[in-house]
Amino acid sequence: MQNGVIYGIDIARGSSRAQEAPRYAVAVLRDGEISHYTMVRLHRILRMLNNDRPDYIAVDNIFELAPNKKALIHLLEKLPDNTRLVQVTGGIHQKPLLRLAQEHGLSLNQFDPIQEAETCAILASLGVGEEVSLFEDITRIKVSRARSLGRGGWSQNRYRRKVHGAVREKSREIESILRKFSRDTGYRYTERITEGFGGYVRAEFTVKARRDRVPVKPSSNADVQVTVKSVERDKIQYIPLKKAGRKYTIVGIDPGTTVGIAILSLVGELLLSESIRGISHDEVVRMIAEYGKPAIVATDVYPTPSAVEKVRRSFNAVIWSPGGEIRAEDKIALARTYGYSNDHERDSLTAAIATYKSYKNVFSRVEKRAPKYLNMDSIKFHVINGDSIEEAIEKVASESKIQVRVKPEPEPVKEELTDTDELVKKLREEIRQKNSQIKQLKDYVSEIKYESGQKEKTIEKLEMRINKFKTSIYKQVKKEREIQIRDTEIERLNKELAKTRKNLKNQRRQNKRLKQIRKKEVKGEGLPVKVISAFTREAIQHTKELYGIKENDVVFLKDPSGGGPVTASLLAESKVKAVLITEDMPHAALESFYDNDVPVLKDIQLHRVGDLASVDPDILDEAIELWKEGAEKRRNEKEQEQFQSILDEYRSERRRGLV
Known about the structure:
Nucleotidyltransferase, domain 5, 5 domains, 10-stranded mixed β-sheet, about 20% strand, DUF460, DUF460 domain-containing protein, coiled coil
């Protein structure tokens, strides 16, 4: 029986799966005395647990506390450190609570939640049931920013550097704690760091130890938050409770520079198999003690090495050695079942397994002869230390007595009761039941009043917070909206200003060019020529819109290759004086210019200034005259060709007798 506090809990009203929160009956076992609480809600039980910090919470069905695994995990995270949840009816294969009570000599009314809660507490104190394990022996620690950095403003980089620096500082502090923890206890850890501007964005540490052993607690401040969580198992695991307190173990040791340690329970379950180089005697003793109290310390060689004997004396345990040499083949065969990584682990496993096998028959006789409600490991421990099985059972039975008030069995009535006595007895029983109901209802009413008062206070606080949030949020939203409108208007004006400046710059450039052309025109040194970038409809239209193309204007086609009769007609309709080119023009377009009597002049010397140019009037007039002579000659040749064609056709018709 444990010396600490044990809570027995049973559902009294409702269900964990119902919308309305259920109520529970609670029995608190403390120093052999039991206190009862009725119609208690779960949040009040959690407050009681945090005050008493019990060793165990005993229930007959864990899903009376939570509807599913996720909710059960959430509940276990709220429990105090070192408080464990026990299902007294067993794990996967459960036994009825009534049968367990009968096996252990306890009276139970299965329709009374108070008695069921009391029975659960007593059974847990006897080591009956299985511990509910939802977490691996792995703890994850995460150090991160306590708030989002957001878009920020001018000081954003300085603020980011400050926050990331704080995360780095906290991470290094935790790393220092874990390094010392690992050095002192042998538990290993890994780390993963995400660096950021000026420090760390986050740091994650994975420690191969239970959360209650890790010396780091959750915390939070303005810049950094630390979360500490156990790693969840894929499915619920049930661990036999056996005995409240330390388990008795069999320890196999392979001494040397690299020490091999193997620890088995007294039922042959492997608890540890590891080899560590350069570990001291004190560290070996500390590691072994974490897994229980060694009943036997074993070695695989004979005689017993002094290092193993020193460990045995530290625990006052029984020594075991094989009495001779064990062959390597036998060691491999023994250790293969559990698996090993090197020879040191194999040899320590061999010692532990050989010891367990040598005591296996004795352990079997203990399990057959000892009562089920007594602690088997304690009986085996006394047998290992030289007691007979009967003496060991007697010792454990005397150690396991529980000082609780158990209702005595009613004595048989020696004489017959009259009808009046029967009626009085019946009425007294009804009065007792009514009084019990009244007490439960009073407790229920007081609980409801307390909860109502708490809810009113909570509602009042929340309403005040909501009003504050509304005011601050309204101001913030209004401010952000005004800033957004201002930023949008500034952006629009900046775009408009940039566009205006660009147009002004283009106009100034154009005016400057026009002035240069105009100067030459006034001096009689040049005739203005308007430059068209390409012989296309779009380019001609662009030049018309920008500079205008009117009658007697001279134009220059930078690229005359893409035009045809339609594009040529656009210039012809404007009655330009001449079209200047430097490359060959398509024949169809050239023909169109000839037909419209528009001179097309090639390789005329120009003086260009950007999109404008000028040409010497005399050279232009001379070239136009030459073109006109050539055009006249071309027309005459064309007329002669047409006449000759008509004459040939007439002669052909006469030869055929058609005329």
